[in-house]
Amino acid sequence: MRKKSGKRSSSGSGKSSGKGRGSGSGKGRKWYQGNILVVMLLKLLLVLVLLFLSRILFYAFNLGYFANLGLMEAMRLFVIGIRFDLSALLIINTPFILLNTLPFKFRYNKIYQGVSNLFFYLVNSFALFTNFGDSIYFRFTLKRLTADIFKYVGVGGDFDKLVPQFLRDFWFVALVWLLFVAILVFVGTRFTVVSSGAKKKGFDVQYFMIHTVLFAAIMVLATIGIRGGLQLRPISLVTAGNYTSAKNLPLLLNTPFSIARTFNKETLKTLTYYKKESDLAKIYSPVQEAGPGGFKNYNVMVIILESVSREHIGSLNHSLDNGRYQGFTPFLDSLIRQGLYFDAFANGKTSIQGIPAVLSGIPSLMNESFIQSPYATGKFSSIAGLLKPKGYTTAFFHGGTNGTMGFDSYTKLVGFDHYYGRSEYNNEKDYDGKWGIRDEEFFQYAAKTINGLKQPFAAAFFSLSSHHPYHVPAKYVNIFRKGKLPIQQSVMYADHALGEFFHTAKHMPWYKNTLFVITADHTSEGYYPYYQSDIGQYAVPLLFFKPGGDLHGMSGLIAQQTDVMPTVLSYLGYDKNFLAFGTDLFDSTSTTHFSIHYISGFYGLMKDGYYLENNGSRSTALYNMSKDPLQVTNLIGKERDVQKRMEVFLNAYLQQYNNRLIENRLSIDN
After folding, report:
1. DSSP-based three-state secondary structure for 420
2. Residue range 510-521: average pLDDT?
3. What is the pTM of this model?
4. By the 8 A CB rule, do 88 and 253 touch?
5. CATH domain 317-588 topology
6. Rounded Cα–Cα distance for residues 392 and 384 (Å)
7. How far, CA to CA in Å, does 416 sit from each of 146, 351, 373, 406, 421?
């Protein structure tokens, strides 16, 4: 009896006795052993499920942003998103599929299978990493990462600091990712290949013919899956706009898909809406005409505040919290009452997009920033470059590590004589440990350095302390209020540093002869519904202040970052033509004031009190900005005259933008 029982035990715990059976109980239990194609399919289905689940977690981590999205609508997008998940799955796993479908018997070799499986686990773990990483990074950009992230790293995007900091602050997301990787490996290793039927020695013609047909069929199906179906064009980021609004596109897409679909793609295409340049120029031209003369050689100081959204400014949000909203910028509030203020909108969502928009009048209406694009090698200028021939000394101040985001190269390219960064400051005791020199100290350094520059000067200062991880010096932690967003205490610190700069500057000889411009590079994440909307998520301040000057009031004109250069040069009475994709805000006769941005394949145009969303070929949404600030009622097809008028303007603007960048016509003398 004992001997008989032993045999039964041996049979139950040994190798599988047949295709598709388990290997017994205990460690190393297999759920499926058999056909190589079935094993491949099961592993791919496992990744598809994990991608689907990671979308649900993306939604959960950013629930505040999608708060207006009903549960049923969210579920609908989850299901539709499978189409994009499947495309991403097949794109990133193409080598794995090829390795396992080639009609040759060597694919059963243990070493060969080991290499194949290693690739599978590594590439899909990385794909999940991008999805989960974007669950947090999305809060700062409000779009899925695209292939421009690799160029961002290449120009000094401070990823060596950003990634470790994100892992510390959002460790729970890293743990979830590790859990998903563990599930991927644990479940994936439960599916193994059995080489039965492939043991026959020599070349098996029948085997080769059958598996060649299977190989061809799988490649055809994979191609259809990558394309997203049998339609004329493969699916892209823009395709998602057929199912939802631009605001919800990130929920429908996934990060591996976004990166893959924008990798090595032509950035811009030549547009021919208008064949004659004269017809095009009648609708829109970026050529800014020379002023009437009488140039005034005022100093110019452009201050760009990191992530200081309009939402953080108390004097601009009297209606919030039933009129009790205090805001986090007491000094800026006081300065707004002394200058000329515009409700402006950023042209992008990142610093590397904002700086050239403010200083060069060039927005980034493509998946990558203008600085990172091949068009940045062409001839273009900036406020500094245009004023240098007028005898101006020019300088750019940023307390970050020299080389960050390529700002040192950009400023040199567009005419800044001096670049002052962390290296020039040369005092590491004021280093915040993450991004650079703290704002309070670096603002003071800038004031004293400017005092030594020959006048007139054109200077730009880009702050950094209101950047994640929102460091506030210990001595101010209990002084500055915390808000409903993590950034807001550091905004108070940045505002304090700005106030101290002005306090110092007031006692310097150049102060009264200086035009100050204050804006932000982009917005932070929003808390109140308007500042989470398609419009409000771009809302930044724009203030022009001239001590003892005539610039006062609150303008009702719509403004954007690219308006800064033409407005400044107009105020100075600049007497030459130049190029900027904005307008002179001081020109009361102009009827062309607008704001434009691009995100996830969609253009957003604000003009004449309306907001239009357009994917480059058709308009998907139209809203009345004053009557419908939260963009609830889509007016597409209802106000056709407004829609047509805005589409005509957008087409003309994009033709000027695309063609001038492609043809290197960003300066008047080209």
Report:
1. strand
2. 98
3. 0.80
4. no
5. Alkaline Phosphatase, subunit A (3.40.720)
6. 8
7. 30, 18, 20, 14, 13
